[in-house]
Specification:
2 copies of one chain form a homodimer.
Chain A (H helix, E strand, L loop, with lengths): L2 H22 L6 H8 L3 H7 L3 H25 L4 H35 L1 H4 L1 H19 L1 H4 L6 H21 L6 H20 L2
Helix pairs in contact in A: 1-2, 1-4, 1-5, 4-5, 5-7, 5-9, 5-10, 7-9, 9-10
Chain lengths: 200, 200
Amino acid sequence: MTQQRSEETRAKILSAAEKLFAHEGYDATGVAEICAEAGVSKGAFYHHFDSKQSVFLTLLEQWLERLDAEMERIRAGSMDGTQALVDMAAVTGGVFSDARGRLPIFLEFWTKAIHDPQVWQTVPEQFARYQRFISDLLRQGMEQSGLGEADTDSAARLVLALAIGMLVQGLVNPQETDWGKAIQDGILVLLRGLEEKSSE
Amino acid sequence: MTQQRSEETRAKILSAAEKLFAHEGYDATGVAEICAEAGVSKGAFYHHFDSKQSVFLTLLEQWLERLDAEMERIRAGSMDGTQALVDMAAVTGGVFSDARGRLPIFLEFWTKAIHDPQVWQTVPEQFARYQRFISDLLRQGMEQSGLGEADTDSAARLVLALAIGMLVQGLVNPQETDWGKAIQDGILVLLRGLEEKSSE
């Protein structure tokens, strides 16, 4: 098996598993089904992954890494932290285009996480990372926004809440509105409200 | 069986099921386990419920009804819609005190909902109801806030996003901050930002 072919096989397995987890659910999907859907042998599967669970965790990691890379790209391209937040909000609109397919895997993850202390302990750290990331951006844009140091942590919680809450609503009612724009408008409203507060 | 004793049995079953669904998961919990935990016979169980699923749906309904009643109570006690929102935010703080126990049942529900079109179709309607409720409150408080009619729907999405996003963060990191206060402060920031917008 060449290196390239091996990479292709791995990608096929991940793609097939993502599809099956989304449509059939994690528990209802076995290694045999993943192999059939991907058109690979069990031998090829176990060459790349120890178990169905390791495929699942790899999918999750990939998704989070892509999100991180996108966020870093925007931060690097922006001098102003608050403008970067608005730019980022625009990107999250893209999440909705394929989120309906990914939501199930996240729900599966959360359901498992809550019953498995080892998985659960990774969740708060994930959230704390996004909070720190947003705090840093707000701090960068502090001079422009007039936001005080002490307020950045609670402002970051607010911005993260907005993003999470819009994502959830967008997943539930994707056609209702342009959710990417709704996040962006919402962040502008929040920033305006925060500036008002600090200038009181 | 007296009426009172029958009510007690039903309550015992619901309470036992809630505990087991939360700790063991829905799939891992059987009617036999629920009966053992509740200290009731299978006969008594099937006198009250058709199946494990109907216990599950009853628990969900109860929780939503309690939430509705609490929200109506606050709306009735407040002349000003925006003030009612702030009061409501304070109440949601109480959600965190026992939410850690209820989160699993909601995740189970969502995971099931997403694989079951019949259950899934109830979810958008639930969200739409909360949006309408918030829109109504904002419209009530419109004169005070100076918020335009056209903005109330997007403002309602924003307020709901904030509540959902804070709840999710609060469930993940309950000790991090006073989440009830964070929702309340956040709603004030939002209202300030929305007023600014409409006075531009």
